[in-house]
Amino acid sequence: MQWECFHHSPRSNWAYAYDKATIHLRVQTKRDDVEAVTAVTGDKYNWDGFHEDVPMEKVASDHFFDYWEAAVKPTYKRFSYGFRLHSGEETVFMTETGIGPDEPHPAGGYYEFPYIHEVDLFAAPEWAKEAVFYQIMPDRFAIGNPEINPAHTAEWGSTPTYENQFGGDLQGILDHLDHLTDLGVTAVYLTPIFESPSNHKYDTINYTVIDPHFGDKSLLKKLVKACHDLGIRVVLDAVFNHTGEQFPPFQDVLRHGEQSKYADWFHIHSFPAEVRDGVATYDTFGFFGSMPKLNTSNPEVKQYLLDVAQSWIKETDIDGWRLDVANEVDHQFWREFRQTVKAAKPDAYIIGEVWSDSRMWLLGDQFDSVMNYPFADKVMGFFASDDFDGRAFADQMSNLLMRYPQQTNEVIFNLLSSHDTPRVLTRMGEDKRKLKLAVVYLMTYIGTPCIFYGDEIGLKGGDDPDCRQCMIWDEEQQDRELYDFYKLLIDQRKSHPVLRSGRFRFLKADQGDKRIIYERLGEGEHYVVWMNPTGEQTAMTHPMETDDWEDALTGEHVPTIGGEQVIELEPFGYRIMCRKL
């Protein structure tokens, strides 16, 4: 066995409390190198009285490694542990003090989980595990009140630019809640709605006022209540990394320079605060001088923003916050943000915009979730192109799953497209068959799925601003067949708990073969999804021990013959099997 490939780290995503009675342990080994791993556990104060060997299961593999996992339920919420690894004639032991062939005398030198403190548990809102989200850009969704349209409003459905505005508003969303309920979504995420001069509103000038072209606070209250009455949660977008240049404190800095009482609200390197040769003398979002970066370690800034976050929850009953450019704000601010938000509404859902590995923000003290762009990149790349096979795709997805604890994976914010990416249909070369495979994967994968408005009726668009097209409301111009498909898959996810919280594992993902099979397994249900992301008709074979499988979408019995199922799939086809346990 390749000892140098063994890895475990206590009190991390390798050893964490899943709930108040259960600890998950993980171990990494070289791929296809180790036959069995056992967690050797016991209470350090009475090892003989509370000793248990727990077999670990290989739950995932990537290009280099296998990942093993076990759930341990210690009698007294604490335990010490090591690992016994076996392959062929070789058995070795791994503890905190090292790796060797001789079993160390317990419990000295073993890893420890000192105690499960409920206050330290990572606890995301339960409703987020059940949710199907729908992202809306208010300016592009629907016009509800033309009287508050901006001057020079562009014609609805014309080509979007970085500057033009189309007049969508909160009333427009309110008027089309029937679309959301019919589709089956149970939560909406609105891009920023606070006062701002732009169409996207990511350059806030007043965090305490709804943009007058969208409505007002009373209308937001009405919208939130209407959504709640329909079983729909509402999450707003907060831009706390930076402001717009018209933000009054920044304007005060421009007028008074170092003498401004707001001078320390921003990261200013030299005065006057200005843009010189295309580069600002102050920190900004990117290199946009019109978006000065806030100093969130300044006590006044911190209190101002925390008051904003709390007041909108208390006054309008929103259900959480999506946080823009969250990775560029200091961790201490987010810790206090979480405490403030959870005090106002304990089951508020906090989603950070982080485009890469987000473990530092998902330790239970900051965010509940992040926008899972790594998921989107890998899923879209796999189904849209022939660049990598099933083995490579499974390797990548397994690696993502091992980044985070199970409870994080259950609520991570999975998406295929957003206001910052090309539309899913465009990315798929406008091939609906490929799009459907990606949507099936989204709706049957672990995590919280999100649909970008209009994807469900075939809206197209390339990079920003083209992806921010106006919603099409004329049903004759909508792809109703695609809409019905989305509706069917959403209903399937909502109707079957295993698709929301069951274990995910690949059953077939081979090198040189793009076809894949994966499963979701949970209490009472077992799902197996077969996919053919190729342009060829195919017959797929896989061992199945029982003969009680049904097509999840039609209810048709699917026989098992000789311990195997043979499934015929059209080019870019799929089939979803299920059975009761």
UniProtKB/TrEMBL annotation:
Sorted UniProt keywords: Glycosidase, Hydrolase
The record ties this protein, via Pfam families, to: Alpha-amylase, Alpha-amylase_N, Malt_amylase_C
Annotated membrane-spanning segments are none
Superkingdom of this entry's organism?
A: Bacteria
**CDD domains in the record, alphabetically?**
AmyAc_CMD (cd11338), E_set_CDase_PDE_N (cd02857)
InterPro entries per record: GH (IPR017853), GH13_cat_dom (IPR006047), Glyco_hydro_13_lg-like_dom (IPR004185), Glyco_hydro_b (IPR013780), Ig-like_fold (IPR013783), Ig_E-set (IPR014756), Malt_amylase-like_C (IPR032091), O16G_dom_2 (IPR045857)
Q: SUPFAM superfamilies from the xrefs?
A: (Trans)glycosidases (SSF51445), E set domains (SSF81296), Glycosyl hydrolase domain (SSF51011)
Q: Where is the Glycosyl hydrolase family 13 catalytic domain?
A: 135-493
UniProt lists the family membership as follows: Belongs to the glycosyl hydrolase 13 family.
Q: Which PANTHER family match?
A: ALPHA-AMYLASE FAMILY MEMBER, MALTODEXTRIN GLUCOSIDASE
Return the protein name. Alpha-glycosidase
